[in-house]
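Standup notes
- DV: blocked on the single-chain target, sequence here:
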Amino acid sequence: MKRLLILIFIAMFAMTLSAAAKIKFEAVELSFGEIDAGKSVDLEFKFSNAGDETLVIKNISTSCGCTAATLEKKEYKPGESGVLPVKFFSQGYNGKVVKTVTVSTNDKENVYTRLKIEGTVNLKDFANLEVVNDKVDFKDVNLGKEYKETFKLKNTGSIDLRIIEVTHSPDVFPVFKTKTIKPNEESEVTVVFTPMEAGRFATFMKIRSNAYRQRMVIIKVSAEVKE
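- DV (later): unblocked, structure below
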């Protein structure tokens, strides 16, 4: 009898040790096909707890461009199913896109599960800004005098490029020939510099536009100011 009780205890202990949560996804890769740039798409990763202990979703992280909505709950009993909603934002993308979602759980054999979404974003009408020279160096200048240098902006897109906002230091003032650049055209920007303090001068001028990808470009302005 005593031996039988020992065997039962050992069996129950072994079962306890082998009990575990196990996450199982219907699919770890989903495709959203083809969409037009600017649109968003919703996808769902379906999963279940195929183990014999409560499954705990510890964390969900995504790569840039997609977000995973919050799950209704984080704990799932053995045999229980759930859905992980994922939304992809296509703004700023063109061509083939691959994004990942990483799910961490208490599944000891599969602590991290990497999910993948892929598809194609079609960019039809867009503006694209290219800076011909993003560094303006006045070199040696004298304190209190006015100096001018130029650089060019080019629109390599298919619709008008619009300059929306420009930020700069008080020493520097940009003069735009035009703030609307047509497709496949370029425009000149004159940088007017009036040094206010002697020594090495360096600042950045930021230009924000309606460009589909690089909406903000940064121009470095430098000089060596003498008294």
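- Follow-up: Helices lie at 2-18.
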